[in-house]
Write a structure and sequence with these properties.
This protein has one domain (about 1-79). The chain has helices at about 1-20, 25-40, 45-60, 65-79. It is globular, with a radius of gyration of 14 Å. By secondary structure, it is an all-alpha fold. It starts with a helix and ends with a helix.
């Protein structure tokens, strides 16, 4: 479990730095990485809470163009 915790530590540091530069955030990339970590079996409740907080952080600072791209992708998938 220490390796997962270390991965989360590293991810937190990177994302907190990127929050200062929202145009650099590729929210889909980070969301996917966080969701992969969340899918791992045996995660501690503390680690799940940290990952959930990171997902919330990404969603609040996602650049408008990134959100627009997701909307386009969703619209194409619906047709």
């Amino acid at each position: 479990m220490k390796s997962v915790s270390a991965e989360i530590d590293m991810m937190e540091k990177m994302l907190h730095e990127l929050v200062r530069r929202p145009r650099l955030i590729r929210s889909a990339y980070w969301s996917t990485n966080i969701e992969c970590l969340l899918a791992r079996p045996g995660l501690r409740a503390q680690d799940k809470a940290r990952l959930a907080a990171l997902l919330d952080l990404i969603s609040t600072v996602a650049p408008a163009s990134d959100v627009t791209q997701h909307l386009r992708t969703d619209a194409l998938a619906a047709t």
